[in-house]
Amino acid sequence: MSSQIKIFSGSASRYLAEKIADFFGTPLGKVELLHFSDGEMQVYYEESIRGCDVYIIQSTFSPSDTLMELLLMIDAARRASVNEVVVVMPYFGYARQDRKSKPRVSIGAKLVANLLTAAGAQRIVTMDLHAGQIQGFFDIPLDHLDASAVFVPYLKGLNLPNLCIASPDIGGSARARRYAQFIQADLIIVDKFRERPNEVASMQVIGDARNKHMVLVDDLVDTAGTICRAADLLMEKGALSVRAVTTHPIFSGQAYERIEASMLEEMVVTDTIPLKKQVSKVKVLSIAPVFAKAFRKIHNHESISSLFI
């Protein structure tokens, strides 16, 4: 007999969890987050979850309290005798710290993986990790979903002639190449040199952008400095228009102002992270249906590869 699925949400991702639960066809479970006077948190499930498959949805964007809340939810679920704890992280925070880029630095992504496993997570579901090798940081099953399932149909629906995919850096070239294959478009690389985090020193275009409608593809945008400079550079190189698609809209610092002032036609994002404010150039596509379908397939022990474009 299959276990019952119950879907719960941390406070940071409730807006998205409600949509996922609606697409899945079940009400969102009741959980209470209590705060002590000093800010310490305590999690309490307001309904029985004994023997259930519990799906806990929480993106771990800033501040770090989102991660601590998630760990407490995992721990509480395990202590309540659930059948399985499935941790759903639409945005996996600290994913940019996937290796030692220089001596004496932390590997934050591996630390987060260890914390999740130690807390009692038995499966991870996430989307568009900044570095694919993070999947290897876990010794439990991990389902890595792809936002191309919503972006590719959107791009095809634009019906733009001479459409061309571009990566804003060498590191994202494999991702951009997949998109180019999906929509049968050419590929251009924008090579950048970064002296320190969030600061680009130089940038150059590898390929011909003349008379093409460009689409920059990235997994996340933080300060928007790189992608806006890339858009401006592509227009200087003769592009007819430049759009951008990015899964995780972190949008810190002057990101919103930069996007509005840039040559970008539009910035298309998903709702893995909520926008801090609405701006005219930013369009949000929901990934809730993708996660709901993934939950169903995981629960029925079916392959999720059909969810990929």
* Residues in helices, as a percent range: 25-40%
User: How many strand elements?
Assistant: 14
CATH architectural category of the largest domain: 3-Layer(aba) Sandwich
Number of helices: 8
| Biggest sheet details | 7 strands, mixed
Molecular structure report:
- There is one protein chain.
- It is built from eight helices and 14 strands.
- The protein has two domains: 5-145 and 288-307, Rossmann fold (3-Layer(aba) Sandwich); 148-285, Rossmann fold.
- The chain starts with a strand and ends in a 10-residue tail after the last helix.
- Helix 2 links the parallel strand 4 and strand 5.
- The chain has helices at 14-24, 65-79, 108-119, 148-158, 173-183, 225-236, 255-261, 288-299; strands at residues 5-9, 31-35, 41-45, 53-57, 84-89, 123-127, 142-145, 163-167, 186-196, 199-206, 213-221, 241-249, 266-270, 282-285.
- By secondary structure, the chain is of the alpha/beta class.
- The protein has a seven-stranded mixed sheet, sandwiched between helices. Strands 1-4-5-6-7 form a five-stranded parallel sheet, sandwiched between helices. A two-stranded antiparallel ribbon has the order 2-3.
Short description:
This protein has 309 residues and is α/β, with parallel strands linked by helices. It has eight helices and 14 strands.
Descriptive tags:
five-stranded parallel β-sheet; Rossmann fold; globular; alpha/beta; 309 residues
List the helices and strands and how they pair.
Layout: E1 5-9, H1 14-24, E2 31-35, E3 41-45, E4 53-57, H2 65-79, E5 84-89, H3 108-119, E6 123-127, E7 142-145, H4 148-158, E8 163-167, H5 173-183, E9 186-196, E10 199-206, E11 213-221, H6 225-236, E12 241-249, H7 255-261, E13 266-270, E14 282-285, H8 288-299
Parallel strand pairs: 1-4, 4-5, 5-6, 6-7, 8-9, 8-11, 11-12, 12-13, 13-14
Antiparallel strand pairs: 2-3, 9-10
